[in-house]
Amino acid sequence: MAIASNLGFPRIGANRELKWAVESYWAGKSSAADLQATAAAIRKANWLFQSKAGISHIPSGDFSFYDQVLDTTAMVGAVPERYGHDGEEVGLDLYFAMARGTTGPDGVGAMEMTKWFDTNYHYIVPEFTAGQSFSLSSTKPVDQFLEAQALGIHTRPVLVGPVTYLLLGKMQEEGTDPLSLLESLLPVYEDVLKRLAEAGAEWVQMDEPALGLTLTDTQRAAFGRAYARLAPCAPTLKLLVAVYFSDLRENMRTALALPVAGLHVDLVRGPDQLGELIQKLGPEKFLSLGVVDGRNVWRTNLANAIAPVDKAAKALGTDRILVAPSCSLLHSPVDLALESELDDQMRSWMAFATQKVVEVATIARAVNGEKKAFAKELTSNAKAMADRATSKRIHSKEVKARITAVTPQMYDRKSPFDRRKQAQHDALRLPDFPTTTIGSFPQTPQIRKARADHRKGAIDDARYQGFLREEIAEAVRFQEQVGLDVLVHGEAERNDMVEYFGEQMAGYTHSRNGWVQSYGSRCVKPPIIFGDVSRPAPMTVEWSTYAQSLTAKPMKGMLTGPVTMLQWSFVRDDQPRSETCKQLALAIRDEVVDLEKAGIRIIQIDEPALREGLPLRREDWAAYLEWAVDCFRLSAAGVEDRTQIHTHMCYAEFNDIIQAIADLDADVISIESSRSNMELLQAFGDFRYPNEIGPGVYDIHSPRVADEPEMERLLDKALEVIPGPQLWVNPDCGLKTRKWEEVKPSLEHLVAAAKALRAKA
Q: What is the mean pLDDT of residues 431-457?
């Protein structure tokens, strides 16, 4: 019989219980025991639901207090020296210190953070040193397996595979290869697998998404070395190597040669690989087929999903087939049943993690010969698929006509950067090393309460608008008081940098509880692009012009760029993403032009997701970067030379796309660089980036208040690679998640550091 399986389930809880419990613990309002109790309740609910839904291979160890890569760092004892790890078990406080840093006179910075492959999920980057030793410092995989077993549920433990783990990390010594540590790392994995076998585990899922990357021969060989040791270390265990987010291509030979019991592949991202897999799999290996999209909200076309599973089952036998989502359901909202505001038709097109689990079980049962038992579900599904394909809500003749009318000239500013730069400097009269922030200020409890009260009707529009004006005025007063050169209005009116704009665009819809984890306790609620996108009316002009009326200093208009709007939304899957992105670009272009007409002289079009959107395969990069860069340029190029266009990027490796960043032709780019100690800035220096740049000198993802000398040191490092006339001074990202008691001293130190730099220049 084909086996219904799952690779991972959302860990935040149906109502974000984990977020509130973690933040309460951080604030000292609850104990470690309270936090552990909440976590145990979430795990129990997840396991019981999946069991009841008909999943046979239920994951354990997929739960995390922060992220699964940090969990692996704790498991193998790869704690950086600055945290004072004594080799004992990594407890909660040390674990959170690595993720967030610590405060106080002896505070230490957090570890670097970056994106998990091409998702908007973040992980804490492991730090390695040459000759590093590893030791078992957390038994979480075994503990959670036993916890489920005590509930009567036999799970499939999940581990981040050793090769992917090393490839995700960074060596502190330049020019050294993290894979040189593989042999010293493997004994910890062997120990964990033996303990799982002794605890009674039958299968263990080894997540190796790096097998979907463009790899060198050395990297491919590392997989063979790793599993030649791991596979026989616990003979009773069956290892399932899971590859997702891409197809295998030239790595298929490596994957199939691994001495493991099974291989999971992503047929959503790589449907064409199935035929070769069936042909080359061999006589014993299990094949796990990811046929339900784990990264989107659309209902699975069951007929289309059953067909490849049937094909594989006929060739290999049903008893060697596992049915699964394409990847962990971590990237999906928890439960569509919690949605009360989506209309019936829209709901009929969607499935969240809970519904996707049921889809997996249904597909497995259908392949096992139970199609008649599920005839009603299959008919209902087919009807929903047909309804979505033909709905008049999706297609707009006006939007399609406008796309057709785009000309090559619309992608270019009127003049090259050198000429624009002079016009902007003449208009803005900014000092050397101008200071600014990335856009948002703290979203205080008062702001969140007012927004919630307004949504519920507890306060009317006039009262809410007045409240927002007071918040904006206070933000402007603070910025003038602290001495920033380019101000922002603080975004008090915005719930999220993507959702806010999606709420005002045609072609979008929105959930009330469609939360997904971004990092740690940070959850986002991506809007949903279901149809052709346009901007019916100005979205930000009123707030930006009001803020500008309060100050003589330049006020930045703050927008989210088309690529990030695409990447951080759940996107329609019935047309190329490039087409949807171009629609978004035209909508943003309208807003940029209206801001300029209203007197806003600096406009920031954030694109933090540009690097994130890169396909995993290098051979696919050029096509993506061409349309992504074109969409940004289309959004930005409608203004005069004197209007300064900024963009912002964060938590990404820039070396790979530095030419594309230059091709964006933004006048100023701000980037995250404080956690990497300005390491990420090196790419801009090596490339001789021609435009202006603001490297972040204040890590906003940590509660630490960086002092002025630390910021001066970072700026001095920046000047080693960026000429002074090109340099701006700013935090590394928006400040909405921080508290005012952290933000105020940090920005005072930032301004003081810029003034010190001017004095030395």
A: 94
Maximum alpha-carbon separation in the chain: 80
What is the model's pLDDT at position 676? Answer: 66
Query: Rounded CA gap, 725 and 723, in Å?
Result: 6
**Cβ distance 216 to 241 under 8 Å?**
no
- Tell me, what amino acid is at 373? A
Tokens at 478, concatenated: 């603070």
Summarize pLDDT for 30-56 with one digit per residue, the tens.
Answer: 999 999 999 999 999 999 999 999 999
Provide the β-strand partners of residue 262.
Answer: 240, 286
Work out the end-to-end distance of the chain between its first and last CA atoms, rounded to an integer number of angstroms: 73
Find, among 595, 706, 689, 606, the residue nearest to 640 by Cα.
595
pLDDT for the residue numbered 678? 66
Quick one: which of 571, 594, 593 has its CA closest to 582? 571
H or E stretch at 44: helix 32-53
In this predicted model, which residue has the larger pLDDT, 651 or 501? Answer: 501
Question: Is it the case that residue 458 has pLDDT exceeding 80?
Answer: yes
What Å distances lie between residue 226 and 117, 180, 216, 384, CA to CA?
A: 21, 12, 16, 45
| Gap between the Cα atoms of 603 and 540, Å rounded | 11
Q: Going by DSSP bridges, is the β-strand pair 262-266/238-242 parallel, antiparallel, or unpaired?
A: parallel
pTM of the model: 0.91
Q: What is the mean pLDDT of the chain?
A: 95
State the SS3 of 54-96: CCCEEEECCCCCCCHHHHHHHHHCCCCHHHCCCCCCCCHHHHH
User: Tens digits of per-residue pLDDT, 647-659?
Assistant: 998 756 677 888 9
Using CA atoms, how far apart are residues 721 and 461, in angstroms rounded to an integer?
A: 50
The size of the chain, in residues, is: 761
Identity at 738, one-letter amino acid code: R
Quote the DSSP letter at residue 263: E
Q: Residue 360: helix, strand or coil by DSSP?
A: helix
Catalytic positions, please? 701
CA dist 745 and 497 (Å) reads 25
Residue 268 CA to residue 221 CA, distance in Å, equals: 27
Instruction: For residue 297, give both structure tokens.
Output: 């909200």
Q: What is the pLDDT of residues 231-271, one digit of tens each?
A: 999 999 999 999 999 999 999 999 999 999 999 999 999 99
